[in-house]
Amino acid sequence: MTWLRDVLDDVADTAPPVDLTERTIGIRKRRRLRTTSITAAAAVIAIALGVTAAARLQPAQPRPAIAPRTVNDLPARGVKPLSHAFMTYCRPEHGEASAGCVHGWQVVTRSGTTYRVAQALSDFTPGLRPSPLAISRDGRKIAYYDTKAGTFAVRDLASGKVLTAPTKVPMGWLGRIVHLLLSDDGRFLAFTSAARLKNSAMLFDLHKRISRPLPNGWNPIGLSPDGDTITLAEYSPKTRLQTITRLWQTSPAGNTTTVDVAGNTTVGALGPDGHSIVALEFVKVGSAGCMRMGADLMHLDRKAGKVLRRVPVRDLSMTANVVLLRGWTGPHEIMALAKPFVCRDRDNTPASSLDPPDVPFTAYAVNVETGRARKLTTFTAQDSLNLVLPGFPGNP
Fold first, then answer.
1. pTM for the whole thing?
2. Which residues of 190-220 are buried (b: 16+ CB within 10 A; e: fewer)?
3. Cis ω on the peptide bond leading into residue 166 (within 30° of 0)?
4. Sign, Cα dihedral of 171, 353, 345, 364
5. CB 134, CB 143: distance < 8 Å
6. Which of 51, 133, 139, 204 is least surrounded, with the fewest CB atoms within 10 Å of its CB?
7. Taking the mean position of all CA atoms in its chain, how far away is CA 129?
8. How far is the CA of 267 from the CAs of 12, 21, 25, 80, in angstroms?
9. How many Å apart are CA 72 and CA 83, to the nearest integer?
10. Dihedral (C-alpha) 52, 55, 58, 61: value to the nearest 10 degrees?
11. Residue 297: helix, strand or coil by DSSP?
């Protein structure tokens, strides 16, 4: 093997020169040391080169399969506050779901631990529509439709205590899109849906075990701490705001105020002060008639529906993204979810998938006074309805 001999010659050349005048005993000792060193070096090099040659000659081995992601069910107690929740269907239009796909709602703690909420209704059939789920503003409680109880339930994640609504809610009442609003203390839960059924929407007091009807088809966006005043928004056929006061004292007929909002707008959650409402205006783009939001954050008069002032949004592209308003992150900041804006010609729009791929939703905290946005984090979900964040809900 010429290549090995050449390597050994190079190693031998690096050995120190031999002094022939040295005494015989010294020569023998050094020769033994050199012989040992050269032999050891040759062995190391031969092994290394042999391994390299073997690696080159052996056929490439396939990478070991990655084990499917394991998601445990929500523990009975001791769960830390949540960051968000998301829904997955695992029902692709073609083929089989990916290995490890978890069907239903999953909640994620602030530290990143994910759990499956096995008790929660997963979706509706036919078709795929996410069932309702809400997270309290502090991330310590969740509300969902409990399939065994046949109604809604509120669960304290730390203690494991579960309170169910005092009234049964048939699944037929849920309709296509369901809205839930959970109070900060978990006592009150508002439920509305797109189902046009009389008296199917309700507000529950889980402590006193009582309920009262709400107007259906509206989206609850705010509730006073005592549960006595609720604010709702409606988007079809036009944007309207409705405020109902003295919820537990009188009939709804005499304490309801409804106002029209100018323009085609979508609103965020009611502010922490109990009266601030900000909105975004829809703008039609391109010949395909795609809709995105305008560049300004609009402050609305909750009692009159008028635009009080406009604040340009900064550090968040309103032209490159579809922006959705959610709950407030502080007294002057509201959360905005941004996903890339894609406008396809209607004639070339591909058929919708039953189980679409995840898309990124980047969360920003937008200062409602200055319009400056600061990036918080990025989530992935199949749709905005499949992603739930803590706090009062905003627009769909």
1. 0.78
2. bbbbbbeeeebbbbbbbeeeebbebbbbbbb
3. no
4. positive
5. yes
6. 51
7. 16
8. 82, 99, 97, 30
9. 17
10. 180
11. strand
